[in-house]
Each structure stands twice: as structure tokens, then as C-alpha cells.
Batch of 2 targets.
Target 1
Amino acid sequence: MVKLGYRLDLYRSADLEVPMEAIRRAEDLGFHSVWTAEAYGADAISPLAHVGALTRRIKLGTAIAQLAARPPATLAMQAMTVDALSGGGRVIIGIGVSGPQIVEGWYGQPWGKPNARLRDYIEITRKVLDRRAPVTHEGSEISLPYTGPGALGQGKALKSILHPAARIPIWLASLGPRNTELCAELCDGWLPMGMGPEGVSPFADVLDRGRSRRPPDEADRPFEVFGGCTVRITDDVRGALDAMKPLTAMYVGGMGSESHHYHREAMARRGFPEEAARIGELWRAGRKDEAVGAVPDEYLEQSALLGSPQRIRQRWDSMVPPGVTGMIVGTDQIEALDLMADLAGTRDQVGAE
């Protein structure tokens, strides 16, 4: 059975309103998890404390928490705190690097070497969460204790005062082969960027290389792969597609630079390289309306279930790529949550428990 997550788009909102009625409904319908994100507005962690206090069992995930937003020890501290407050065994840390525009422009940090920094960041976070020993780490990008420029040399290896209520899994959002390989080696789950209808198979060799480097005692550790889709019940599919295009054009055209643009790369990986390049070209030229018009319907429908309940039912099986274990659903309609629960069978699972 495919697991279902519920995506909250709070990070895009000027006003913070958490849709608790919909979240509670998702929990009652057997949804596995609810997911937050962050860009340069609402953060990804704080809303999960609110949701955790007002729900009972639905898991609380970040998709994603930006690596540059906080040191790895801080992310681990926040995750343990929210997990303890919500009863334990509920938090999932999803990490991503974001892009140089945000890393350097918002957080004031150098872009550096993202793959090396990710390794250091994940390994330190895992050490803090596991609480096996005072944390030390000698990395090329991050080290603990810190001994670099400006250090007094008085740093001490420490172990978290707070004991984790349960093991907290770490997931990684990635696009390129090096980060995806790292994910399979170090993480418990993968949030793939740019996965097409063919699913996990094009990434099989990369994932296998990563798994081969796991310690023997972690060789059989479960590994989740969650995709995503937008769902809207409507009689106007054309209108729904057109409403999605401005945001898509903004991400593909404007959320990145010519040299570093993950959303453009994701669109290209999903089979639309020429369209992605054209949208970027138009957006950079200030021709935003034309960029919006250049977004292909076919691209949008790869990750969107739009139309009548019957049309959505007909397209559901083709929406879940092979090898994916879960789908994170974005919708502002409670009736769409009910429909997805029926399609995925999560409502029946709740009844069987």
C-alpha cells in the first residue's frame, strides 16, 4: 500500500494559517505524515510543534529543512524537542541544500561544496540524535569541536542533555547522482527531485552504490521513497492547469541562477529540457507572461491529479511511479483528502487497526 503524506505550503504564505481541520481529517483517514517546508518566510520546524500538539499519531516531517538555516546540532535539538512534545516516534527530518541564491543571499553563508557539507551535516545530526557519545566530527566543511579561524581552542565535545523519545529518521531531498548516492548511504528516506513516470529504476545504480557503503548492521535499514502530487477536484481542468503555471514558471525561471538551478534541472530530468531552458530564458529577459505560457500542460499533469473524481481515479495508478513508497499530497480541499485515502486504501487500514 502506498503511504500518503499531506503537504502544507505555509512557507509561501504572507499570513500563517495552519489548516488544522484538514490535518485532523488526514490523520483520521490514515495519512502517514504531514509535511512542512521553508524558503525565506515561515520556518519548517515551528509549525510541526503546533500540529503535533493538536494531533495524535500522524508523523511530522520537513520537506525540506534548509541545511544553511541552522547548524546540524540545532536541527537535531529542535527535532528531539518536537518529537518529545508530540509523544515520540513522530518526527522525520527531511533535509535539503536549497540553492545559492538563498544560502548566500538569505543566510549569508558560502555555497561551498554542497555534497561534502551534506555529508558532514547528516553525520553530525545523526550523532547528536543517537546520543551514543559526546559528538566529535572532522569534516572538510563542518567540524566539531570547531577549531578554525577565530576559535579559542576551548570547544568541548558534548552529548545531548535531552534523551530522544525515539529514533528520529533523516531523509534527504536530492536531484544529482552524488547527493542521491549519499542519501542511500546515510539516510532513511529519499525525497527525489525530478523523478519522472519511470520511477526509481533510472537511479538504481546510484542507490545501490550508496547502500553498499552502509555499515553491516544497517544494511537492511528500511528506506522510504516519497514522491508528490497536487490534487484538485474540479470541472475546469483547463483553468486548474492555467492556475498552476505562474508558480511553476517562477520556480523554473526565477528560483535559481543560470549556473545553479535545481528546479530547471528537475524539469529537464522529467523529459522537458527544451521547455525548461526556454522558460528560464524568458524569465531572465523579464518576459514573465511568456514564461508562464511556455509551461507545458503535460509537465504539470505528471505531478497533478485534476478534474472530476472519476478522472482522478483513472489517473491514480499512473501517478505513482514504480519504486515509490509514498506520495505527499498537496490540496486545499478536504474532499480531495478523502478521495486520495480511498484510492490509496489508507482509510481501510485505519479501520483494520
Target 2
Amino acid sequence: MKRFKLILAAAAIAASALPASPCSRVVYLAADSSEVIVGRTLDWRTPIATNLYVYPAGMSKQSMPKGPMLRWTSKYGSVLAVGYDGGVTEGMNACGLVMNGLFCKTSEYRTESNSPAGTPVMSLSVMISYFLDNFATVEEVYDWFGKHDLAISGQTFDGGTVSLLHWALTDRSGDTMVIEYDHGKVNLYRGRDLQVMTNDPTLPQMQAIDAYWKGVGGEHMLPGTVRSADRFVRASFFIHHIPDNLKGDVAVSALATVMDNVSVPYGYTIQGEPNVSMTQWRSMADLQRLRYYLRFADTLGNFWVDLSSLSLTPGSPVLKLDTSRNRAFYGCANDRLRASEPFTPMW
């Protein structure tokens, strides 16, 4: 009994030291890499209108409207989740590379003001698009960061909230890389074992907390709050305690049960902690079949976009699934996509 009380006390101290913030990311990785599926929840205090866009290859883009910037022509088509019709939250390209941006209060970017003259600036609104447009694997992105400098620019949103993010990428091989900024320095963490990411604190600190709970033993008890570290620990335990030989729809469904376990109940709030918020939607990206699944918390149905059956060649139209008037989709939503103008970035 005494040991049990000490464990609870240590856990409470660790949790109370952590800032509260939203979103969870989990990778289902089959033992033979035949299935790689990335699940993600988006949690926030106010509604984030999210539309899906499908962009073809061959589009000319830029990272900022003026000043030092990156310019590129997209090599690969992709499906993008776009918040407020102005910024890419996550997406998957035609090579099966997925990138997700999650809130992280401790992020301190390198900015134009503290970078050498001429350093290209990347708007957060199109950062995910840049990497999905240009790279097929995590290794390619990792090598790019080893050769290039980048400054970050981002607009505030939701009444002045600063866009503080960290990112994770996963490719068809199951290779994952986490990108975090600390005091203007980019830190890259790479490996097939990086199957879970939530929010604050930084990944090394989060892994230390997870290691503590592994010592406790998750079959006896797990931390149960909606705080970032607690969700990380639960996701880490459950993703390693479901079968690693599942296929197709069964694998997607199994990952969905893990994502449900780290979701925040609809309408949930804590007085004085607005960032501990309800899950607004859950996505899953099947990297082998190139299906991007989405389910809104206030609807009953799962739906998906199947990139493998869409034309993504240069000259194909931009397509949009507008969820502003109707979100009650179910099954493959390719026939609900409509030709559209590209979204306007919130530079």
C-alpha cells in the first residue's frame, strides 16, 4: 500500500509540472511493415473549421508572399486537412508520406529577425505542403534539414493564440521523424520506435515520463487524465499491446480504438485551462492503401479520401471537400470532391 501511494504521488508531481495542451498522434506499425497507419486527434477549445483539399503535382508555390522565401513546383500530389481554409494542419502525399503538426507550447522557432540575412522564411500555413510536395521518404526530409536553414513565420489564430507547433513525419517503411524547435534550434528525432507524439513537454522529456510508467507496469494502472503526458503514456502502452500482424480494415479499426482511448470527450472543459479541450476530429492515414480517413466528433460516420483512385498528374484540378455545410459523410468521399481554387494561405 505504501509503494502504491508513492507511485501516485510521483505521478501527480510529474503531471502537475506539465503545461496542458491538446492533440495526439499514434503510428500502427506491423511487424513486417506491411501495414503503416498514422492516427491523429485534433483537440481544441473552439471549433476549427477543417476542409479537405486534394492538390495535384505540378503546382507552383512559395513559402511567403515576399522577402526571402522558398519557391517550388510540387513533385507529388497530396490530400491536405486545411484549418480555417488558411493553413495546412496535416496531410499525406501520393508516395505515402504523412506529416502532422501538433500544438507545442514550448516551441521557440528560428525567425527572420534572428537568422542570417537571406535565410528563407517558411509560413506555418504551407510548411506541411512544402515537405509533402517535395519528398517521398523521411530519410529525404532528414537529409534536407542537414543541408538547409529555415526561419519560421506564423499568424496568430483563435483570438490571438500563437501558432506554436512541433511536427512528425512517417513514411511507408514505418520510419518516423519528429521536428521540434528549442531556442531557435531545430532538433530532429528519428526512428521506427517513435510511434507516439502528443504535446508538451519535448520528446526527450516525454520519453522519460513514459519510461517511468513502463516501470510501474501499464497492466496494473495507467495515468487517466487528458493531459499531454498522460495521453502519451496511454497511447504508448496500448499501441504496443495490440496485435502487430493486423491487415487492412482490421488494422485501421484497431488503431481507431487506441485513438478513442486518448481522445477528449465532446464538450469537455476545465476551468482556467482552455487548452485541455475536446477532440474535434480524428484522422487516420493508411500509407499502403493511400486512404486518408476522417471522423468529426459530432457525427456518426467515418469517411475517407482514396488518393490511389484520383488523378494527381500535373494539370489536374484542385479538389475540395467542403465541410462547412455538411459533415455527415460516410465511406469513400471521392465522389463528394469538387473542383476548387487553391486555399489562400494565412501568411
